[in-house]
Design brief:
The protein is an alpha/beta fold. 41% of the residues lie in helices and 14% in strands. Bound molecules: 4-nitrophenyl phosphate.
Length: 153
């Protein structure tokens, strides 16, 4: 890609819950570490139902509670993304499999970067659950984003 730094695409199903949170948390942490300019960050969904939408109100509320902004406007993953981004971070194994089926070779599960986590590697989809799901997702993503930043630094 025609930029300096490492480009990261966070990917979930709808691009309104998990991947916008991952994107916002990563930006927040990278800025806090003083390394934000080393990265190009975006998020996308494997599905197209919510294209053009801002994040789910529950994702926005969870982020706001922790002082984090979510810049995302939902879009669908495109074939160009597979070539243009250095690393695709899939929120769960279904998202990962979808990207691999599209031909991606640079995909990793987001939770594989969560320090010490070896058993549950999916970020659970909070869309159909109650509000607590978003706080759980937030906690996982904070740990995983920190691990990812450690790995990339
Ligand atoms: P996300 O959550 O993949 O974390 O954005 C979902 C949002 C919407 C739907 C599924 C998951 N949906 O089926 O509309």
């Amino acid at each position: 890609m025609s930029h300096d730094g490492t480009s990261l695409l966070f990917v979930c199903l709808g691009n309104i819950c998990r991947s916008p949170l991952a994107e916002g948390i990563f930006i927040h942490q990278a800025r806090h570490r003083g390394v934000l300019e080393k990265f190009v960050v975006d998020s996308a969904g494997t599905g197209d139902w919510h294209v053009g939408s801002r994040p789910d109100p529950r994702a926005l509320a969870t982020a706001q509670k922790h002082g984090i902004e979510l810049p995302s406007m939902a879009r669908q993953v495109t074939p160009n993304d597979l070539a243009n981004f250095d690393l695709l971070l899939a929120m769960d194994s279904a998202n990962r499999d979808h990207l691999v089926d599209m031909g991606a070779r640079n995909v990793k599960l987001m939770r594989s970067f969560e320090p010490g986590n070896t058993d549950e590697l999916d970020v659970p989809d909070p869309y159909y659950g109650d509000g607590d799901g978003f706080e759980d997702v937030y906690t996982m993503l904070v740990a995983a984003c920190n691990g990812l930043l450690d790995e990339l630094s």
